[in-house]
């Protein structure tokens, strides 16, 4: 798909001396949109039951073309056949309301052009895993969910369990191998649970999440959560990501999943009365994951490399606008590549938030210590693996409250125990190369770390970086490989700052909502 230039109005963050760049950019042709037809008639109960039976009894190679209508309370249906297509006869006219859940267990199936609104996922009284799964469970191999919409699909029972924990209900769960979620729109999730989760294992998932819109993930249950059992408040704030890939237990297995060319807008998870809450927009708890070419706007939450090795974050654009507590990328664990990303105007401070945060951990990685699921001393895979051998290259950071930030976090023992860990360790052997970090606005810094053995990053190497503006925690004279001279800069047609020369990010595309996502839209 061709790309069209977008003009980003840069308001108060404009840098003195920046001028428009008239260089050519790739053009985009907008897709043809189809409006959701809210006037379609309600399908009869017989029609709903007939559709359910056709899916449950599908044979290999069937094409199930659904005629227009509102299909209410379909319930949970499982597709076990292979090479089946389930699609709307006319996109925008097949709408699922009420209690609905699709589970795909066969291979090579396509689900396409369906709309889900005014309802919620079917919940089981017997199977907890089925509840977590949400609207879609995409398993098997080579299955695709394409050009569909889940819009404000939040109507389901929402009561705490005996321990005070609220339900954690996703919208989409992807397991299996080589499954794809492409060109969909996920908008308006207001209760606990991620929009999309990739369930990892010891096999290569190779899940592709491409060309989707993730929008308006906020918490409308704030009063319920803040007034819940005090021991459960932090747990109930958690699990509100747009995407989570994996879990801590399987985090050292290679996934090779790709999150590419998606648009994220207003992903704030949960911001409590004290401004805290879900910090993760994307939570990576797997190894070998690539997060490439995505655009994030107006969001509090961050790309979080929480668990796992060898992950790659490249070619992403993060523009939070004036969103409070906003951040960019936070990093734990080893051997990641953070390259050619653009982050401007993040406002988050404290010990965890910033434009590019290298976190402390609880293990001495410099001397070979690791986390293990079999640990008997509390250093299990759920804990904080100290950042090590991270390459930070060709990134541009502009006017962030905390630009490149060596965190000084002292970690809690667990979600339900606020006791602080006794020993922490700073990031080790980070390579900073060809980065541009500009702090021209009041209250911003280009680079920040803390003095002392507990917090100061160890073994950092600097090559051809420009850190212009406030710098904290680096000894004078500054290391070779850091210049503080403000370079000549200009804004391109998309509103991104580019330094004259080879330092910083380049050749990026700022995605907009009309460039990706489903062609089916609500007016």
List the helices and strands and how they pair.
Blueprint: E1 34-35, H1 45-56, E2 63-66, E3 69-72, E4 75-79, E5 85-88, E6 94-104, E7 110-112, E8 115-121, H2 128-133, E9 136-138, E10 144-146, E11 149-151, E12 172-174, E13 180-182, E14 185-189, E15 196-198, E16 208-210, E17 213-217, H3 222-226, H4 233-237, E18 243-246, E19 258-260, E20 263-267, E21 280-285, E22 290-292, E23 295-297, E24 302-307, E25 312-314, E26 317-319, E27 329-331, E28 337-339, E29 342-344, E30 356-358, E31 391-393, E32 396-398, E33 404-406, E34 412-414, E35 417-420, E36 431-433, E37 436-438, E38 447-448, E39 461-463, E40 465-468, E41 471-472, E42 482-483, E43 489-491, E44 497-499, E45 520-521
Parallel strand pairs: 1-45, 2-5, 3-6, 4-6, 5-7, 6-8, 6-9, 7-10, 8-11, 9-12, 10-13, 11-14, 12-15, 13-16, 14-17, 15-18, 16-19, 17-20, 18-21, 19-22, 20-23, 21-24, 22-25, 23-26, 24-27, 25-28, 26-29, 27-30, 28-31, 29-32, 30-33, 31-36, 32-37, 33-38, 36-39, 37-40, 38-41, 40-42
Antiparallel strand pairs: 34-35, 43-44
Question: What's a concise summary of this model?
Answer:
The protein has 523 residues and is mainly β.
Short descriptors:
523 residues; mainly beta; 26-stranded parallel sheet; 13-stranded parallel sheet; 4 helices; 5% helix
Count all strands and give the number. 45
Main sheet characteristics: 26 strands, parallel
Q: Overall 3D geometry?
A: globular
Strand content: 25-35%
What would you say this structure looks like, in words?
The structure is a single chain. The protein has 523 residues and is mainly beta. Helices cover 5% and strands 31% of the residues. The chain is built from four helices and 45 strands. The strands form five sheets. It has a 26-stranded parallel β-sheet that branches. The longest helix has 12 residues, at 45-56. It is globular and about 80 Å long. The two termini are 24 Å apart.
